[in-house]
């Protein structure tokens, strides 16, 4: 250390020298040596740079270097991020993941192998042929299922999500487009027509019965009353029994 130690330092240094830079740091700052060619210069930082981890002591806080395969670390023996070509697993940086794990090139970590999972099959669809459910005897029916968990790189692949099989249905005729509606309309009109016809017939019947009743009453009024026939017993003469 250069003997010329200054107390009026810049950049968070508590003590410093012209040759070695910071010799000690102000409270809560970390002391780290940065190499410049063949020379090391002391600096004081609020946090340790990449590749270093911080240690706190009563007299000084220092930044220590991580292991060579660590990009960042919590302690020397516990990495939090690995350098390129290594995969993080339980605080260690490995070139190859252990059995039962796989390398994740996105996070650069060793992760569990995830297999594909599918839902239960849906019920079979109605039997169809060329998109129709009528006009044929043999057709096809299908069922489907969904993927609920996609696999990882080394996981088991997903199965088929649809199945089809032959089916037989009782042949039935297809109604022409608009024919069903037309038939319903015709039936409705016919029903209304029949109801109207019955109503008219009932009205005519009531009118005829009323007319007959009125005519009968008129005939009774105009026809002369018949004279009552005399009693036979009264018209016969008495038999003479004297002879």
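^ structure tokens above, recovered residues below v
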């Amino acid at each position: 250390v250069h003997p010329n130690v200054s107390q009026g330092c810049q950049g968070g240094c508590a003590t410093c020298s012209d040759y070695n830079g910071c010799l000690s740091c102000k409270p809560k700052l970390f002391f780290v040596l940065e190499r410049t060619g063949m020379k090391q210069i002391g600096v004081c930082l609020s946090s340790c740079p990449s590749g270093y981890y911080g240690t706190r002591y009563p007299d000084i806080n220092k930044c220590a270097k991580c292991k060579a395969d660590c990009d960042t670390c919590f302690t020397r023996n516990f990495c939090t991020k690995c350098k390129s070509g290594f995969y993080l697993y339980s605080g260690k940086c490995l070139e190859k993941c252990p059995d039962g794990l796989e390398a994740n090139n996105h996070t650069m970590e060793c992760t569990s192998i995830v297999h594909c999972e599918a839902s239960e099959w849906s019920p079979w669809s109605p039997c169809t042929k060329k998109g129709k459910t009528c006009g044929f005897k043999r057709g096809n029916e299908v069922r489907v299922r969904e993927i609920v968990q996609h696999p990882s790189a080394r996981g088991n692949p997903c199965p088929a999500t649809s199945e089809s099989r032959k089916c037989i249905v009782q042949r039935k005729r297809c109604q022409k487009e608009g024919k069903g509606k037309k038939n319903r309309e015709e039936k409705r009109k016919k029903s209304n027509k029949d109801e109207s016809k019955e109503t008219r017939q009932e009205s005519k019947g009531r009118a005829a019965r009323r007319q007959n009743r009125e005519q009968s009453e008129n005939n009774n009024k105009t026809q002369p009353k018949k004279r009552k026939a005399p009693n036979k017993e009264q018209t016969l003469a008495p038999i003479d029994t004297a002879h």
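The radius of gyration is 57 Å.
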